[in-house]
């Protein structure tokens, strides 16, 4: 009798044939052990059939007295894998590249119920280690172990996968010690930022805070940025770039020897993987000697090629490069350096490589620039990876030289000669010249199940599991959280898990809610009788105020019980404890911590329904100087970034129109609103920059430098960006900040000033963040806004200390500090200086007034007395523009300030913070 069983699992088709005594068997007897012939070939992957599996008969019918166990008639019982020899030279899994003989303690079983090979040996299989793969990959079992492979539409090594065609960012620190001439200089944590247009292989690398004589000498050292060109190079058909081969965890070693001076430099770049936004993190260490390059000189580098040789877990390349130094007098001289590169990474040893042993990287459009005034060093390249000695004609294809017109989120596919085709990347739609994000959530294209919420992100989407569930290894499936494993119940209680929730119940003889259980003699609360009813929360806690007694109306049990939240935050735990302390019924004057939807402390905390309020930091601690009894609550700014569910798909600078434009900060984005005269051109409103995980508060525009500067409360940094296409945001201050808020630029002296309500300081620095110094660190409680009169060199700032609000001034050097206004103000959030009329004006959320005066404090007058909740203010063209927290809008006041002439409400509704105006014409002086 022949019985055929077909098992289908993850595209597997395994046909097992149960033989009869007359069937031929592959099983052979060699030296008393049972083997399967030659088992040296790697196993075929799961995606193809793996042949017929012939199972020997029971022990009584086995050849040569073999003691194989009988075939079970129970299909749910695993069959020992060593009983399944294979035909056609194909093999199943084995821990040591052989099938163990009968009775071996380490047996592999093929579970016919699940279709998964279960191993008790030392082989790592997908069934046990699939979580090591990227959520955008699939796992494949081979004879000696498993490997990860990126899904279609993604590229990488399987453990790290990125969507094809999406621009990629890299960030990290550059440290080391270098010698130039007789000068020894330490690079104390310069910032590295890289931006790669993967669709055409262009790479932009920037190093900030680099001293001038080191910056000049570093210009020829293009290998610092060459790594990123190789990682994300444009791939010719049949060839792969560096990231496709090594992923996001590796060590890149470079040795450079300059000629003719024989200076040597060592570069070590360590990649630490991808962050939550799929961006790469790389730390760079540089040590050695550099040839001297005179200040003002430039460096020119011609296109070049490099041949990379690939081994099992090592990639090497050696070459000689030339560069030309052009002096300020126009003379030039050409030099060279010898380059050795070595990349070590964790390649999967179980899958033979499909790429050639050698690949060639073609690098064109090489640019290098050091800007001494900004202490920044920039490298740009256009990179293509293909076969060695590729046809030079390929280099003229627009995809290769970057002259195509494909969208930044599109792939440029080269054709014959100069022909090419633009194809939008996965997750985008369009003709390739214009690509738009596909909203998988609204179009019904998501992979999210009924237990999750779909959240659209640029080029993809995420699934946010409902409370009580967590994401499985695949990133899409939501599985129940077994809260009982976390031992949340009292030691004298039992825990019962249920889908999306759990329940704690005290043991017999104990009383309580399951989280607190006491013997009856100790418990102070009367237990419920059989005639009482009550509602219970999903956590097993009695819902306060729902217990009823005989004769009372019954509680409405039809209301859905709240689902199990995430593990309690500090705010939620504190709130639960106080609720229990108040017996479930706090009074209108009792303090109950106010938590947001994510369980974080709300920035404003109050006693019950009273007006006795204060600001709280992210840990719930009161911010000194913010407590008040006023009807207007304090202007507290959150310190934790909100979810990114409504952010637009821009992650780079989209320059505003050429005319005057109002820019506004709105948490994680900076918006642009063109001005048509004094009116807001709402139809042309756009997003200038998206900064996920940020809370942008203060913004200011430097007209002469064409840069925007901003403070970020969530990341505790100060950054800037040029207002030009694809400009890379640059962090210039990232230490010593707690709550940076307002900032100002002195356009004459090229200086930056800012206030920090966490450190209670006013500080200054150069526009690149260097030369930082503290101007004031005393008699400040809640500083918020700051402006500068560049003509007179005077600073003005507000402090909304609820006990003593004031407006002060000083020189930009920190001298002649004095209080200008301290009477008749409450919450002076906003401040602006109009040099055209020499007026200092402020908007007060406490008094609801807009007032102006001369810079010396005289001539104070009221402009408007019916504001709602102003936060930031700017004057332009005899009009006032301000952001309002209560209306969540930007408003325009008439020339006399008596009426609102225009209003803009962004589509994404949330608090608006700082505002500023860009102009194509810079003021004189």
Automatic annotation (TrEMBL):
<keyword id="KW-0964">Secreted</keyword>
<protein>
    <recommendedName>
        <fullName>Nidogen-2-like</fullName>
    </recommendedName>
</protein>
<dbReference type="InterPro" id="IPR009017">
    <property type="entry name" value="GFP"/>
</dbReference>
<dbReference type="InterPro" id="IPR001881">
    <property type="entry name" value="EGF-like_Ca-bd_dom"/>
</dbReference>
<dbReference type="InterPro" id="IPR006605">
    <property type="entry name" value="G2_nidogen/fibulin_G2F"/>
</dbReference>
<feature type="repeat" description="LDL-receptor class B">
    <location>
        <begin position="793"/>
        <end position="837"/>
    </location>
</feature>
<feature type="compositionally biased region" description="Polar residues">
    <location>
        <begin position="544"/>
        <end position="558"/>
    </location>
</feature>
<dbReference type="Pfam" id="PF00086">
    <property type="entry name" value="Thyroglobulin_1"/>
</dbReference>
<feature type="domain" description="EGF-like">
    <location>
        <begin position="122"/>
        <end position="162"/>
    </location>
</feature>
<dbReference type="GO" id="GO:0060070">
    <property type="term" value="P:canonical Wnt signaling pathway"/>
</dbReference>
<feature type="disulfide bond">
    <location>
        <begin position="606"/>
        <end position="613"/>
    </location>
</feature>
<dbReference type="InterPro" id="IPR000152">
    <property type="entry name" value="EGF-type_Asp/Asn_hydroxyl_site"/>
</dbReference>
<dbReference type="GO" id="GO:0042813">
    <property type="term" value="F:Wnt receptor activity"/>
</dbReference>
<dbReference type="InterPro" id="IPR011042">
    <property type="entry name" value="6-blade_b-propeller_TolB-like"/>
</dbReference>
<feature type="repeat" description="LDL-receptor class B">
    <location>
        <begin position="706"/>
        <end position="749"/>
    </location>
</feature>
<keyword id="KW-0325">Glycoprotein</keyword>
<keyword id="KW-0272">Extracellular matrix</keyword>
<feature type="domain" description="Thyroglobulin type-1">
    <location>
        <begin position="568"/>
        <end position="636"/>
    </location>
</feature>
<dbReference type="Pfam" id="PF07474">
    <property type="entry name" value="G2F"/>
</dbReference>
<dbReference type="Pfam" id="PF00058">
    <property type="entry name" value="Ldl_recept_b"/>
</dbReference>
<dbReference type="InterPro" id="IPR000033">
    <property type="entry name" value="LDLR_classB_rpt"/>
</dbReference>
<feature type="repeat" description="LDL-receptor class B">
    <location>
        <begin position="750"/>
        <end position="792"/>
    </location>
</feature>
<dbReference type="GO" id="GO:0005886">
    <property type="term" value="C:plasma membrane"/>
</dbReference>
<feature type="domain" description="EGF-like">
    <location>
        <begin position="395"/>
        <end position="436"/>
    </location>
</feature>
<dbReference type="GO" id="GO:0017147">
    <property type="term" value="F:Wnt-protein binding"/>
</dbReference>
<feature type="domain" description="EGF-like">
    <location>
        <begin position="437"/>
        <end position="479"/>
    </location>
</feature>
<keyword id="KW-0106">Calcium</keyword>
<keyword id="KW-0245">EGF-like domain</keyword>
<feature type="region of interest" description="Disordered">
    <location>
        <begin position="544"/>
        <end position="563"/>
    </location>
</feature>
<keyword id="KW-1015">Disulfide bond</keyword>
<dbReference type="InterPro" id="IPR049883">
    <property type="entry name" value="NOTCH1_EGF-like"/>
</dbReference>
<dbReference type="InterPro" id="IPR000742">
    <property type="entry name" value="EGF"/>
</dbReference>
<feature type="domain" description="Nidogen G2 beta-barrel">
    <location>
        <begin position="166"/>
        <end position="395"/>
    </location>
</feature>
<dbReference type="InterPro" id="IPR000716">
    <property type="entry name" value="Thyroglobulin_1"/>
</dbReference>
<feature type="signal peptide">
    <location>
        <begin position="1"/>
        <end position="19"/>
    </location>
</feature>
<dbReference type="InterPro" id="IPR018097">
    <property type="entry name" value="EGF_Ca-bd_CS"/>
</dbReference>
<dbReference type="GO" id="GO:0030855">
    <property type="term" value="P:epithelial cell differentiation"/>
</dbReference>
<keyword id="KW-0677">Repeat</keyword>
<dbReference type="InterPro" id="IPR050778">
    <property type="entry name" value="Cueball_EGF_LRP_Nidogen"/>
</dbReference>
<dbReference type="InterPro" id="IPR009030">
    <property type="entry name" value="Growth_fac_rcpt_cys_sf"/>
</dbReference>
<dbReference type="Pfam" id="PF12947">
    <property type="entry name" value="EGF_3"/>
</dbReference>
<dbReference type="InterPro" id="IPR036857">
    <property type="entry name" value="Thyroglobulin_1_sf"/>
</dbReference>
């Amino acid at each position: 009798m022949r019985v055929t069983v077909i098992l289908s699992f993850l595209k597997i088709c395994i046909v097992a044939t149960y033989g009869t005594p007359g069937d031929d068997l592959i099983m052979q007897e060699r030296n008393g052990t049972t083997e399967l012939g030659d088992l040296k070939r790697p196993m075929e992957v799961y995606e193809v059939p793996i042949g017929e599996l012939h199972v020997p008969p029971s022990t009584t019918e086995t050849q040569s007295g073999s003691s194989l166990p009988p075939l079970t008639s129970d299909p749910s019982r695993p069959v020992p894998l060593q009983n399944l020899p294979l035909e056609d030279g194909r093999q199943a899994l084995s821990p040591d590249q052989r099938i163990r003989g009968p009775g071996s303690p380490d047996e592999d079983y093929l579970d016919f119920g699940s279709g998964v090979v279960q191993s008790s040996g030392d082989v790592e299989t997908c069934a046990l280690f699939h979580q090591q793969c990227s959520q955008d990959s699939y796992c494949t079992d081979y004879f000696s172990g498993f490997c990860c492979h990126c899904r279609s539409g993604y590229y990488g090594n399987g453990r790290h996968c990125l969507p094809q065609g999406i621009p990629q960012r890299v960030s990290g620190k550059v440290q080391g010690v270098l010698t130039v001439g007789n000068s020894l200089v330490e690079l104390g944590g310069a910032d590295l930022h890289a931006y790669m247009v993967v669709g055409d292989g262009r790479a932009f690398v920037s190093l900030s805070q680099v001293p001038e004589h080191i910056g000049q000498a570093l210009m020829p050292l293009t290998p610092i940025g060459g790594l990123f060109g190789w990682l994300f190079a444009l791939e010719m058909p049949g060839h792969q770039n560096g990231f496709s081969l090594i992923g996001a965890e590796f060590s890149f070693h470079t040795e450079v020897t300059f000629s003719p001076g024989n200076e040597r430099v060592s570069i070590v770049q360590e990649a630490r993987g991808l962050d939550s936004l799929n961006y790469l993190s790389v730390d760079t260490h540089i040590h050695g000697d550099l040839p001297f390059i005179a200040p003002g000189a430039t460096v020119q580098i011609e296109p070049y090629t490099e041949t990379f040789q690939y081994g099992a877990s090592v990639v090497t390349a050696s070459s000689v490069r030339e560069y030309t130094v052009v002096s300020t007098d126009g003379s030039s001289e050409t030099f060279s350096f010898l380059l050795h590169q070595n990349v070590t990474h964790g390649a999967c040893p179980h899958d033979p490589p499909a790429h050639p042993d050698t690949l060639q990287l073609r690098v064109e459009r090489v640019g290098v620039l050091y800007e001494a005034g900004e202490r920044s060093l920039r490298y740009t390249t256009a990179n293509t990876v293909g076969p060695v000695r590729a046809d030079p004609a390929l280099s003229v294809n627009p995809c290769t030289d970057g002259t195509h017109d494909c969208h930044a989120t599109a792939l440029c596919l080269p054709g014959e000669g100069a022909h090419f085709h633009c194809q939008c990347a996965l997750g985008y739609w369009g003709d390739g010249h214009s690509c738009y994000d596909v909203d998988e959530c609204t179009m019904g294209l998501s992979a999210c199940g009924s237990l999750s919420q779909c959240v659209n992100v640029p080029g993809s989407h995420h699934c946010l599991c409902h409370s009580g569930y967590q994401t499985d290894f695949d990133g899409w499936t939501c599985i129940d959280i077994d809260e009982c494993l976390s031992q949340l119940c009292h030691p004298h209680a039992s825990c019962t898990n249920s889908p999306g929730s759990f329940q704690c119940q005290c043991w017999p003889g104990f009383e309580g809610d399951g989280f607190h259980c006491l013997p009856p003699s100790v418990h102070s609360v009367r237990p419920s009788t059989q005639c009482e009813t009550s509602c219970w929360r999903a956590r097993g806690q009695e819902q306060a105020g729902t217990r009823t007694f005989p004769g009372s109306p019954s509680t409405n049990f039809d209301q859905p019980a709240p689902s199990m939240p995430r593990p309690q935050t500090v705010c939620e735990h504190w709130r639960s404890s106080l609720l229990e302390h108040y017996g479930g019924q706090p009074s209108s004057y009792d303090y109950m911590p106010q938590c947001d939807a994510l369980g974080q402390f709300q920035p404003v905390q109050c006693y019950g329904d009273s007006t006795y309020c204060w600001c709280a930091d992210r840990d719930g601690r009161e911010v000194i100087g913010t407590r008040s009894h006023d009807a207007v609550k304090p202007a507290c700014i959150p310190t934790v970034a909100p979810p990114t569910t409504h952010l637009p798909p821009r992650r780079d600078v989209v320059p505003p129109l050429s005319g005057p434009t109002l820019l506004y900060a709105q948490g994680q984005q900076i918006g642009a609103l063109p001005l048509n005269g004094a009116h807001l051109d709402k139809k042309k409103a756009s997003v200038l920059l998206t900064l996920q995980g940020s809370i942008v508060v203060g913004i200011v525009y430097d007209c002469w430098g064409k840069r925007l500067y901003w403070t970020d409360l969530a990341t505790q940094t100060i950054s800037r960006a040029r207002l030009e296409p694809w400009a890379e945001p640059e962090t210039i201050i990232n230490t010593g900040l707690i709550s940076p808020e307002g900032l100002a630029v002195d356009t004459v002296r090229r200086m930056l000033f800012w206030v920090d309500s966490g450190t209670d300081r006013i500080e200054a620095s150069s526009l690149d963040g260097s030369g930082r110094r503290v101007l004031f660190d005393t008699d400040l409680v809640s500083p918020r806004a700051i402006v500068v009169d560049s003509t007179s060199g005077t600073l003005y700032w507000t402090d909304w200390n609820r006990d003593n609000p004031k407006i002060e001034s000083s020189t930009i050097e920190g001298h002649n500090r004095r209080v200008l206004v301290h009477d008749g103000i409450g919450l002076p959030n906003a401040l602006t200086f109009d040099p055209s009329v020499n007026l200092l004006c402020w908007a007060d959320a406490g008094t609801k007034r807009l007032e102006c005066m001369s810079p010396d404090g005289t001539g104070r007058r009221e402009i408007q007395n019916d504001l709602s909740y102003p936060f930031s203010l700017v004057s332009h063209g005899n009009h006032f523009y301000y952001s309002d927290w209560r209306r969540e809008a930007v408003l325009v006041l008439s020339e006399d300030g008596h009426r609102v002439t225009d209003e803009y409400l962004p589509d994404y509704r949330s608090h608006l913070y700082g505002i500023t105006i860009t102009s194509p014409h810079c003021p004189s002086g």
